[in-house]
What does this fold into?
Amino acid sequence: MRFSLKSSLWTTAAAALLLAAGRVAWNHFAGPVIPISTLRELRSGMSPAEVKSVLGEPVVVYGESHPYSNSWTTWIYERRFNPGWVEVSFNADGNLDSINDESPCPGAFELESAPSVDAAVEQAVP
It folds into this structure.
């Protein structure tokens, strides 16, 4: 069996195209709904306007009142054809309280608290 350079190049190009298409499909259908790097921009206590400036408009917004706790609001972010979602919850004061990343392949993500004024002053003053 004899292979020519031309057929080898076509085979290589077809394989590269197939791999690229697979990568795009994976990112769209099974990748994170919101990239971890974007979620890391969020801080506990942010206002809804600040959260929207980072994440954009949520797909679903719902509120719930629980008899044993304060009322809260939850925003859901989804991506079409992606089985995952991200829940962003606000406490009764309207501040960002928690994030639940239910992406098919979520990374390790924890909501960090915004640095306190005291901590910022301590770092600035020698």
Observations:
- Strands lie at 43-44, 60-64, 72-78, 85-90, 96-101, 112-113.
- The first helix runs from residue 5 to 29.
- The radius of gyration is 22 Å.
- Confidence is low (pLDDT under 50) at residues 114-126.
